[in-house]
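Ticket #4471: structure output looks truncated?

Reporter: J.K.
Steps to reproduce: submitted the chain below (534 residues) through the standard prediction queue, then opened the result file.
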Amino acid sequence: MTSLLFSLLLGATMLCIFLYLMVRTTLFITADYSWMEKGLAAVLLLAEAFTMVHAFGYFLNLLHVTRKPDQARRISMDDVPELKDYPPVAIIVSSFHEPLDVIEDTLTCFYNLTYPNKHIYFLDDTRYDRPGQDLSEYRARVDDLCERIGVNLFRRPWRGAKAGMINDFLHYLHGQPPAEFAMNDFEDVHSRLDEKYIIIFDADMNPLPNFVEPLVAFMEDNPRLAFIQTPQYYSNFEHNRVARAAGLQQAVFYEYICEGKSMQDAMFCCGTNVIFNRKALWDVGGFEESSVTEDFATSLKFHEKGWSSAYLNKVCAFGMGPEDLGGYFKQQFRWALGTVGLFRTIVGAFFRNPGGMSAAKWWEYFLSGTHYFVGWVLFIMMACPMLFLFFNIPSYFARPEIYFLFFVPYIILTLSLFLFSMGQRRYSFAELAQGIILQAICFPVYMKASLLGILGFRGSFGITPKAGANSLPMRGLWPQILLAVCCFGAVWWGGLRLWYESETPLALLTNAAWCFYHFLILSTIFWFNFPEEK
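Returned output as attached by the reporter:
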């Protein structure tokens, strides 16, 4: 498929999105609804608008990437600048009571990095003063591990989480510890930070030996780059269905979306596998500590201060994804809570200084900041067909011919382009479906997290469990199970209505089909909840 044809199809798809929204809005305004139907129709219209605006955002990024294939990536392994010298680089990992075998694998990979001028720092943020816990043996083993591999070890009085730990470390090495601490409150790492760049990993991330060199080369070539983000890849992808689906869900983000954001200088940090310009990090006051998604929040600070960012689409490090629904839900709750919480900050920053960033950057931040409202959208999309089948509301569904006339072209074009574009990156429909379904059954987590986030609840930082897979009790899955039962009941009731009624057979069949589709998706909760044997 030529670039011109692909661009034409993209344009047609985005036109279909606008046409469908225009028709739905016109019908909503002109329809003779009761007040209750009007309210439900408005909620449904907002949910559809949310879906299509985000779909438009995806296809806009796709258009940026495909419009000029030779310039699709601002930085690429096909064109790495020459690295004339090797400025010092700090390799940092912060850990909160992670399994020792996980830490050892990570630190060993750091030691094996081929970059010659690297300094490795292990930031042990485990809380050793917690009442009722004796972690002296764990602490001694960490000490021994760092000494054996040759890693600088840093500890501090426990407070906060990852962002605070890294900030305290940076301030300490600058000789400027936080006001509430004295220098002797910290365990000396026997050095002072003189590194030009800082690379941060999660405790379970294992970088390839040549991870550092190309990133430093790109940073040296562009002094205004605050950071370069690289993708995450789960090493437990092959033998665990939750990790596999979670990884495939992220694949959609780490392909065209990240590349499109990078082309608009709107890429945000994802917290691991990322290199920072130390000067830029110091310029914005370090990591933002008020959010559990400190990476996303700090990215906004960089861009507001005029720093640039970029994305290198090359898998250079391998980590561990959540292996059960409990771990996955915990991870997604933290991401959703922090991201939606930052959306309040984004809105405030926009109204205070709309000229502080380009329109493209604001657009990308608004899309990212609202993404996790998708839980409410999914719930509304599942509830509305049931409301029609059980109670015949909203009555707009009684006119399916208009729905089909504008919806079918939209859904065919969007699905075809999405699958084709991801197929170009060697992802199959079956693989992508796993990630999409796992996200769909996470809707109660997104609903709760987004509500708390928009209300200003901060929450606390928590690591994703890495101790194997465990099934959640059925009571922990009651929202998905209850909605699945309701969907199945709606299909059954719709069949009865179809048998005894003759006025709206097509409308009944359409909504029954949607309910059955949602029932199948929700039923996968049992498949994902059953631990997979290795």
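Triage note (M.O.): checked the attachment and the full token line is present. Residues 35-67 form the longest helix (33 residues).
Status: closed, working as intended.
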